[in-house]
Design goal:
This protein has helices at residues 74-80, 92-105, 130-137, 156-161, 174-184, 189-204, 220-228, 245-250, 309-321, 333-346, 363-368, 377-382, 384-390, 401-406, 424-432, 450-455, 488-492, and strands at residues 4-11, 23-28, 31-37, 54-65, 67-72, 84-85, 114-119, 142-146, 151-154, 171-173, 208-213, 235-240, 266-274, 326-330, 350-354, 372-375, 410-413, 476-479, 496-501, 504-508. It is α/β, with parallel strands linked by helices. It has 3 domains: 1-66 and 465-511, Urease, subunit C, domain 1; 76-184, Diaminopimelate Epimerase, Chain A, domain 1; 269-417 and 432-449, Alpha-Beta Barrel (TIM Barrel). The strands form 3 sheets. It has an 8-stranded parallel β-sheet with strand order 5-11-12-13-14-15-16-17. Helix 9 links the parallel strand 13 and strand 14 (326-330). Helix 1 (74-80) packs across helix 6, helix 2 (92-105) runs parallel beside helix 3 (130-137) and helix 9 packs across helix 10 (333-346). The longest helix is centred in the middle third of the chain and has 16 residues, at 189-204.
Length: 511
């Protein structure tokens, strides 16, 4: 691989509070080989590069460690980019109208399912019901996936196809719907892999060098195939779900181990367990009950505990003994307490995914056990109105990123794509400026400093790069603006001039 000399770049300072003076940076052997003072335009310091490197004039652009998205469902994200977008629907009737328009303009081929993604119904004035979809879809199977991935809205034809004939409402939640989600991904490998390759390229264009993939049930074999076929633009840490845990253990791989034959791009990740539901679906497991909708009774007023401690602890012990870390989904405050208790009881290592609502006494427990809080800041903006309604009086301890940081917890930022776009700049902007729509910042006391948010975006996985230094792995991003000082809108839409993984260009625009 040809060496690359980046001329006149301004590296992020080690404390991440600003950019340094212009320097030249030589990338060779997949690493930052040398850093030296920049000279006049067009000149090359022969002491830095004796010759043979590709010289790239960077004109004073910012140079940062490459960004990681610590929570992605990559296959679902790749598919969602091609599905009917429901994110703008403000009612069940809106959704039905969008379905009718798509069926009129671009109906699926005979027998195929029309899939929509992104509805959020907690604030809707009307009820999502199978009858509303049946009226516009006839015998075409329709599955609408909620924006939080925790529920689906199906018409009669889809209920028949997926084994729910006679279901009264067409609304399927949590574990039952996860089975439908997996079935919707049953497309030929070569087709899905092409979609994933496109999504990986789009991620690289946003400065992403790596992702943690939580695709069920075990994405490691899929990534071995994709990398062998040429999808090499990202590093991937691949998780495993409980039903494939024994297969993963049988490989002998431990969390952080590099998978042979993947050029160092693929590593074994953690055990993923979903312990409760979500806020929008009213299934996040909380100490306090949710408000009752008018004229309705909630079957589980405090949400759903999907994996009780009696089942969770043996899973953690099995993972611990096999050298696997754990990544436990917990959104409600009661679920977070139980997950923290399980980590404490077993001595397992790992992270809590989401940690959206926390009791005050639980905040310092993250640092006390060395657990990572893997959070998705854009969710705070997407869910602020829902949280104000469903978690009224408790939102001061919702999405409590500053409290976690101040208590010593290590943070890792992500998107939960497709719940939010796979774009770390969106997560960064939401973490440091808790509004994106012109309204007042929502609980601004929980905003992070930019230096902290940047550090939480550079990777908590083994081998990730935290600073541009000699000897560091050459996973880097060039930006047109200074992320330490630009305005929030520019940060959110950061122009990316180039991305490199191991010194190899995965995206290049303008340099």
């Amino acid at each position: 691989m040809t060496a690359v000399l980046l001329r006149s770049v301004r590296p992020l300072l080690p404390d991440r509070t600003g950019l340094g003076e212009p320097v030249d940076v030589l990338l060779s052997g997949h690493r930052v080989a040398a850093i030296g003072p920049t000279g006049p335009a067009g000149s090359v310091d022969t002491a830095l590069d004796p010759g043979g490197a590709e010289v790239v004039e960077c004109d004073g652009r910012a140079l940062l460690p490459g960004l990681w998205d610590h929570h992605v469902h990559m296959a679902q994200w790749a598919l969602a980019r091609r599905r009917l977008d429901l994110s703008g629907a403000r009612s069940a009737a809106d959704c039905a109208e969008l379905v009718a328009e798509r069926l009129a303009s671009a109906p699926p081929a005979g027998g195929e399912v029309l899939v929509g993604f992104g509805f959020r119904d907690s604030l809707w004035p009307d009820e999502a019901h199978r009858g509303l979809l049946d009226a516009v879809s006839g015998d075409v199977p329709v599955v609408l996936v909620s924006g939080d991935l925790h529920q689906g809205w199906l018409n009669g034809a889809a209920l028949e196809r997926f084994g729910y004939r006679g279901h009264p409402t067409g609304r399927i939640r949590e574990s039952e719907f996860f089975a439908v989600t997996v079935a919707l991904q049953d497309v030929p490998d070569e087709v899905l892999d092409g979609f994933v390759a496109d999504a990986a390229g789009a991620a690289a264009a946003r400065g992403v060098v790596g992702i943690v993939d939580f695709e069920a049930p075990w994405s490691l074999p899929d990534w071995q195939r994709r990398i062998a076929a040429g999808t090499t633009g990202l590093r991937v840490e691949a998780s495993v779900w409980p039903d494939q845990l024994e297969k993963a253990i049988a490989t002998g791989l431990r969390s952080g181990d590099v998978v042979d034959g993947t050029g160092g791009l693929l590593t074994a990740g953690p055990l993923k367990v979903i312990t409760d539901g979500s806020l929008n679906t009213r299934t996040a497991y909380c100490y306090d009950p949710y408000p009752q909708p008018p004229g309705a009774v909630i079957d589980n007023p405090c949400g759903l505990l999907l994996v009780p401690p009696s089942s969770l602890r043996p899973l953690l012990e099995r993972a611990r003994d096999a050298g696997l870390e754990a990544a436990l989904h917990a959104i409600g405050d009661h679920a977070n307490t139980l997950v923290l208790d399980a980590f404490a009881a077993t001595g397992a290592r790992g992270r809590i995914e989401h940690a959206q609502l926390l009791r005050g006494d639980d905040v310092p427990r993250f640092a006390g056990m060395g657990l990572v809080a893997s959070v998705q800041p854009e969710h705070a903006l997407d869910d602020r109105d829902v949280a104000d309604r469903l978690w009224a009086g408790r939102t001061g301890r919702a999405f409590a990123y500053r409290s976690l940081h101040d208590a010593g917890a290590r943070l890792a930022l992500g998107s939960d794509a497709p719940v939010a776009p796979l774009d770390p700049w969106i997560a960064l902007a939401a973490a440091v400026h808790r509004t994106a729509d012109g309204r007042d910042r929502w609980h601004a006391e929980q905003e992070l400093d930019r230096a902290v948010a940047l550090g939480a975006s550079f990777g908590v996985v083994p081998g990730s790069v935290g600073a541009v230094t000699e000897g560091a792995r050459a996973d880097l991003v060039l930006t047109d603006a200074d992320p330490t000082s630009c305005d929030p809108a520019t940060l959110r839409a950061m122009p990316v001039a180039g991305t490199l993984v191991g010194g190899r260009w995965t995206h290049r625009a303008g340099v």
